[in-house]
């Protein structure tokens, strides 16, 4: 694997063949001997662990406080201290202790491991770890392992032009920022799916453990199969406090806490104290026991000796003081072990001589002269703990998953096409065709593709995947269960947070997938979508971060078609959230039918480092384009449907009817049909948009269409009546800066909903075909005679509809059965 001092080999796509094949370095027969060795470190090993831990703590404190004198070669002075003291100390010593011991585990066993720090504000501890391992200097040569590099390490932390205080995307070895608490376990579980030899160390902070997403994510062990998945070792770090008070689990009776996690199915191992070297011995024994149990589970499963029951995976509860080894009493107030050590225990260092003295005593208590040599590099006692090359957690290719990414073996999406002879004649459930495509992607990619869906795979018409894979489930299975087994790889759990987070972990370690959910409930995990977008945005500026498979999100059961569900199921808000992401990350697609959906999905599955949001309903819908037309349409992102309007292209139309979204596309074409029949001299252009991001200017988004093409679609002065799937403000936001943007009159979802008929939803939100015709008449540049009568007819139709649905409990036949069959025959 190379030495720890080797150059940045791990940045290359070429990874050792043994690593790619996932071979465990340790022979199986040595497993029990290794556990015994790990459990009983000798004096020299404990000395090395303690030296590394002290060095990491020293570097952590230095990042928070110092802008000069990094090795304390002279007495500390106020000018050596940063003008703004930012960062979080309280959780950092515990994070460092864990990191040191896991590094020893890796070096002893060859175990491939990544480290996910749930307490994201422990950023300086993980930055320090990468620095001590040498990876940080490989990635950022300016931050060299010498006195000058150490100074730059300190000065950059939480400073302008530097790095964030979180374990962010800039931190080598990280796939989990942790700034927004609650997702460390779901990321860890996603990382090990189809990754059989990876161990995810997931440190859960006791403040984070109070969040809803984290509370739901303990169930991840109910979905991990030791035959083909890796393992997650959760370490619940109870240090007693969060920012300003105690935490729930830290104040509970330890026996009660143990019952909670045993109830989830974990084999709980507890470690507590603050005595040294006692804590090193106890934690080494706990980690050895945990790793031994994990390996026994995996060896049994992979040798065929497993009875199929869900294993009792180990979980460590680590109790250590908050702010361990830091100041205990400041200005007569207890700080150590309390919430007061959460951030900056000594806040008046520049102006208070006592605080300055305490800071110097604190830093010198780590005995830096033993830890760093005359040049400022880590001594052999410290650097000797680190594993070699790619096995360093800060250098693991699993934490830079684009290095391990293999393209999907995709079938030809054209083979799943619906035969469309004429537009809007036949109906089909478009997402069924996507399900068929994903079925065959599963078959071709048994180790790098999964669908994640909150108990809705069949509901969303994606059930074809069950022809080749069951739902994965490690709890008991009964005879009444359908397509559920321990070997399944379709992931269903009724938690948007878990499904979304599992896919993020899966993507960030180099594998592909899709998260499918009901549109309204995508808002449950919307913040995760935003946070992932921020990660991708920042990663795009780091040349050493390899691009990863895109986060693909499919929204169905949309706002416009919830025949038996009510207002709670009607909310297209995720579109708005994704639009706020930077253009180098955000993509929003609104395919109107099956063939455009297949074309879009093919593109998304091939893409890298995007958030691809696809929105289409699951109900039977009219089909508009044959496959060749769909490919051309999706390639352009939008197009004029000449067959739908009365615009001959020789001059500007009188009105442009535009649409984006399946239901509103039908309403728009129906509106154009009404105008064609009743006002044939009105020149109507119909424009359908499938890629929402063609609407902004090119300088605002990479997909933004040129001024010439935008003018060809929408002219530069004719009014546009735009029927949109989501909130109307989104279109106004996107066309800002386009010629005469005020001419865009947008109809969309305006928070009017209930349990009602499909057409009534469009009426309630003033986006029905009749409303669109009225809008066209009100805004057309030239009106032929008879327009007033058509407008009155539309108003009468709306009144007729209102009475009909109440009496008959369904839409009027002329709406319910509408198609262009009569046009095709004429």
TrEMBL record:
Entries under Pfam families matching the protein: XFP, XFP_C, XFP_N
One Gene Ontology MF term: magnesium ion binding
Sequence ranges assigned to domain Xylulose 5-phosphate/Fructose 6-phosphate phosphoketolase C-terminal in this UniProt record: 618-819
Keywords (A to Z) from UniProt: Lyase, Thiamine pyrophosphate
Organism expressing this protein natively: Actinoplanes regularis
UniProt family annotation: Belongs to the XFP family.
PROSITE patterns for the chain: PHOSPHOKETOLASE_1 (PS60002), PHOSPHOKETOLASE_2 (PS60003)
Reported cofactor(s): thiamine diphosphate
Annotated protein name in UniProt: Xylulose-5-phosphate/fructose-6-phosphate phosphoketolase
């Amino acid at each position: 694997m190379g030495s720890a001092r080797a150059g940045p080999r791990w940045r290359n796509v070429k990874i050792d063949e043994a690593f790619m094949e996932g071979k465990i370095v340790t022979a199986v027969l040595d497993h029990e001997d290794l556990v015994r060795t790990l459990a009983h470190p000798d004096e020299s090993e404990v000395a090395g662990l303690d030296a590394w831990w002290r060095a990491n703590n020293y570097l952590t404190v230095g990042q928070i406080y110092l802008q000069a004198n990094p090795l304390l070669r002279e007495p500390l002075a106020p000018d050596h201290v940063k003008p703004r003291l930012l960062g979080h100390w309280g959780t950092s010593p515990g994070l460092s202790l864990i990191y040191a011991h896991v590094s020893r585990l890796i070096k002893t066993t060859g175990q491939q491991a990544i480290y996910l720090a749930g307490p994201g504000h422990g950023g300086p501890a993980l930055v320090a770890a990468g620095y001590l391992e040498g990876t940080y200097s490989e990635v950022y040569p300016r931050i060299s392992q010498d006195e000058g590099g150490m100074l730059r390490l300190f000065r950059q932390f939480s400073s302008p032009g530097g790095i964030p205080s979180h374990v962010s995307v800039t931190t080598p070895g990280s796939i989990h920022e942790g700034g927004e608490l609650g997702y460390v376990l779901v990321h860890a579980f996603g990382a090990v799916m189809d990754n059989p030899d990876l161990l995810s160390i997931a440190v859960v902070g006791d403040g984070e453990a109070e969040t809803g997403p984290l509370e739901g994510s303990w169930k991840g062990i109910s979905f991990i199969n030791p035959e083909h998945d890796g393992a997650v070792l959760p370490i619940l770090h109870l240090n007693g406090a969060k920012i300003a008070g105690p935490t729930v689990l830290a104040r509970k009776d330890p026996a009660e806490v143990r019952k909670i996690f045993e109830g989830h199915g974990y084999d709980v191992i507890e470690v507590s104290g603050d005595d040294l070297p006692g804590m090193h011995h106890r934690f080494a024994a706990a980690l050895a026991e945990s790793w031994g149990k994990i390996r026994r589970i995996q060896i049994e499963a992979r040798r065929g000796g497993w009875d199929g029951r869900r294993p009792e995976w180990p979980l460590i509860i680590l109790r250590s003081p908050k702010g361990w080894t830091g100041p205990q009493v400041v200005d007569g107030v207890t700080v150590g072990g309390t919430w007061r050590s959460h951030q900056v225990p000594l806040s008046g260092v520049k102006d208070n001589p006592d605080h300055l003295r305490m800071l110097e005593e604190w830093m010198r208590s780590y005995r830096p002269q033993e830890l760093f040599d005359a040049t400022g590099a880590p001594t052999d006692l410290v650097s000797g703990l680190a594993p070699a090359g790619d096995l360093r957690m800060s250098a693991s290719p699993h934490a830079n998953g684009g290095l391990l990414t293999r393209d999907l073996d995709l079938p030809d999406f054209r083979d799943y096409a619906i035969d469309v002879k004429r537009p809007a004649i036949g109906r089909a459930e478009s997402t069924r065709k996507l399900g068929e495509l994903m079925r065959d992607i599963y078959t071709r990619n048994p180790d790098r593709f999964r669908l994640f869906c909150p108990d809705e795979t069949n509901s969303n018409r994606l059930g074809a995947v069950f022809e080749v894979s069951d739902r994965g489930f490690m709890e008991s299975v009964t005879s009444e269960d359908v397509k559920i087994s321990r070997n399944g790889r379709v992931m269903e759990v009724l938690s948007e947070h878990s499904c979304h987070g599992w896919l993020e972990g899966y993507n960030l370690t180099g594998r592909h997938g899709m998260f499918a959910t009901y549109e309204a409930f995508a808002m449950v995990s919307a913040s995760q979508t935003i946070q992932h977008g921020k990660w991708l945005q920042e990663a795009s500026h780091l040349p050493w971060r390899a691009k990863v498979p895109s986060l693909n999100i499919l929204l169905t059961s949309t706002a416009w078609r919830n025949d038996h569900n009510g207002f709670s199921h009607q909310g297209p808000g995720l579109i708005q959230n994704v639009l706020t992401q930077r253009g180098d990350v955000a993509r929003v697609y609104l395919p109107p039918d099956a063939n455009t959906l297949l074309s879009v999905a093919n593109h998304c599955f091939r893409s890298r480092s995007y958030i691809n949001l696809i929105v289409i309903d699951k109900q039977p819908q009219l089909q508009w384009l044959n496959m060749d037309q769909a490919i051309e349409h999706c390639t352009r992102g939008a197009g004029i449907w000449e067959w739908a309007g009365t615009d001959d292209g020789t001059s500007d139309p009188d009105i442009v009817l535009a649409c984006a979204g399946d239901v509103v596309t039908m309403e728009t074409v129906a509106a154009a049909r009404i105008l064609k029949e009743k006002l044939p001299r009105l020149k109507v252009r119909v424009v359908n948009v499938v890629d929402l991001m063609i609407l902004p200017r090119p300088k605002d988004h990479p997909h933004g269409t040129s001024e010439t093409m935008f003018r060809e679609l929408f002219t530069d002065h004719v009014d546009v009546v735009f029927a949109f799937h989501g909130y109307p403000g989104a279109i106004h936001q996107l066309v800002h800066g386009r010629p005469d943007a005020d001419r865009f009159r947008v109809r969309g979802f305006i928070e009017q909903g209930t349990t009602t008929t499909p057409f009534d939803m469009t009426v309630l939100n003033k986006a029905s075909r009749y409303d669109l015709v009225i809008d066209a008449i009100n805004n057309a540049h030239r009106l032929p005679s008879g327009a007033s009568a058509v407008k009155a007819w539309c108003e009468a139709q709306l009144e007729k509809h209102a009475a009909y649905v109440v009496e008959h409990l369904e839409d009027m036949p002329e709406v319910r059965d509408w198609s262009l069959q009569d046009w095709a025959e004429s």
